[in-house]
Amino acid sequence: MNRLFASWGVSMSILKKALPVIVTGVFAGLFIVLSVFISAGGFINGSVHGFALDAEENLYIGTDQNIQVYAAGERIREIRPFRALGHDYRFVIQDDTLIIGSQKWKYAKIYDLNGKYLSDSDLRFENIRDTAESRSTVESNGNLYAIEIHGGFAPAEVLQNGETIYQMSFWDFLFTGFPAVCIRVILLGLFAVSLLAFVTDEEVKAYLKKVQRL
Predict the structure, then answer these.
(1) Where are the alpha helices (DSSP H) in the chain?
(2) What is the pLDDT confidence band of residue 85, given thresholds at 50, 70 and 90?
(3) Where in the chain is the domain with CATH 2.40.10?
């Protein structure tokens, strides 16, 4: 009986030492799973992949989930191509059509400005990417438009004559920008440190050796 209580006491002691590993591992896993879930579920739009203007100066913002269209600061529609955009695509507006290139597609796709598929293009992703990047600053009717991504360290925004007319939402920035990276690094770092402390603890090592001999 005394041996049983002694074994139980050691097991509880080992469990207490493992608690930081369990807690940090659970929180790290939950945050990663939550990020994937809310992104896949469409609860956030995700990263910004560029912008474009049509002839009426409506603003088109490309995100992971869709291309959002704004007029006078209000979102008037969303364009969701029949094929998933993914996290690496670019788009341009040319001759009143929307040309979208993705690394997942062999050739770019052409849509009308309401999102209706028209045809394939003979352009590849690299062509669309280079054209879109060359249009990161656009002049239209005396107005100067520019996009600022900030490398993920601040919410992406589009400026008109130096004034912000679009800014990524707080939740998009939290789960896809610099805060998300920091949270993941901190949680995974805490998990790694707590795991290292657990496996190098003398009592734990002795207990594991005992278990291996059984």
Answers:
(1) 2-40, 125-134, 170-176, 178-199, 202-213
(2) low
(3) 48-136
- CATH class for the region spanning 48-136: mainly beta
> Which pLDDT score is estimated for 212?
65
Q: Does the pLDDT value for residue 3 go beyond 80? A: no
Dump pLDDT digits (tens) for 12-58.
777 888 888 899 999 999 988 888 888 777 788 888 989 999 999 99
Model confidence pLDDT, tens digit, residues 86-119: 668 899 999 999 999 988 888 999 999 999 999 9
> H or E segment at 109?
strand 109-112
Burial class (CB in 10 A: 0-12, 13-18, 19+), 153: exposed
How many angstroms separate the CA atoms of 50 and 48, rounded? 6
Report the half-sphere exposure of 3 (CA within 13 A, side-chain side). 0
Which secondary structure element, helix H or strand E, spans residue 94, and what is its range?
strand 89-94
Angle between helices 202-213 and 2-40 (to 10 degrees): 100
Nearest to 133 by CA among 62, 35, 40, 213: 62
Gap between the Cα atoms of 79 and 181, Å rounded: 28
Angle, alpha carbons 36-40-45 (nearest 5°): 100
